[in-house]
Structure formats: structure tokens, C-alpha cells
Amino acid sequence: MKFKEKVNKLKSEISAIYIALKDKRTPLYSKVVAGITVGYALSPIDFIPDFIPILGYLDDMIILPFLIVLSIKLIPTKIMEQARIEAKNIWKDGKPKKWYYAIPILIIWLVIIIFVVKSIIK
């Protein structure tokens, strides 16, 4: 299996992670990591913008798969198996368009921009 195929397979797990996130039996620490994973996957803003050559796709190839694998490992196996079954048709109409998933990433970029502006002005 090629690297790109593995990444695409991992990305298909996002819907199951989303369902496990909403499950009441999922431990809090798993929910935190799963929330970060789903939010980052659905966010229109990346830590490293895609227009930056080579580094722009770093998050799509390393950061997101890492978060997905970490989430899967932290979510109990029985909950994850049930979530995979429920996830087969959850996004049949496409990704949900929820803008608030981008809030954490926007805050991080805003802090970076403020820091850069302040350091330039001094």
C-alpha cells in the first residue's frame, strides 16, 4: 500500500472519530484529542498554508494523519468499532460546513500575526 493510499484511508476514519467524539462513553482525554482532530480536518485554515511550497502540504501528509492515529489509539476499541459502523453514511452529502471548527486555528494564526506585527513595530 502506497503512502498516499494510507493517508486517504486514515482520512476516511475522521467520520468515525467524529461519532466517537459525541459518544458519552468516550473518555474526556479522548474527546479532547478527537475534537482537535476533527476540527483540524474540517477547518479551512491549516497551520501551514498550502500556498507555501513543500511545507504547505506537510500538515496534510504528517500532522493530520498523526492526529487521526492518536485519536484512534485513545478511543476505546468497542466505541471505535461501533463508530465505524455508524460512520458509513454520515457524510454521504459531503463534509459538514460548520465554520466554528476553524476557530482554534484562527486564534493561533491571529496570535502569530499579532506577535509578528509587534516585533516589527518595535
Word description of this protein:
The chain has six helices and no strands. It starts with a helix and ends with a helix. The chain has one domain (3-121). The protein has 122 residues and is an all-alpha fold. The longest helix has 19 residues, at 103-121. The relative contact order is 0.17. Helices cover 66% and strands 0% of the residues. Helix 2 (14-22) packs across helix 3 (28-42). The protein is globular and about 55 Å long. It has helices at 3-11, 14-22, 28-42, 58-74, 77-87, 103-121.
Low-confidence stretches: none
Number-wise, the strands total 0
The share of residues in extended strands comes to: under 5%
Number of helices: 6
How do the helices and strands follow one another from N- to C-terminus? HHHHHH
- The number of domains is 1
Major pleated sheet: none
What does the radius of gyration come to? Answer: 16 Å
Give the structural class: mainly alpha
Q: What is the percent of helical residues?
A: 55-70%
Summarize the structure.
With 122 residues, this protein is mostly helical. It has helices at residues 3-11, 14-22, 28-42, 58-74, 77-87, 103-121.
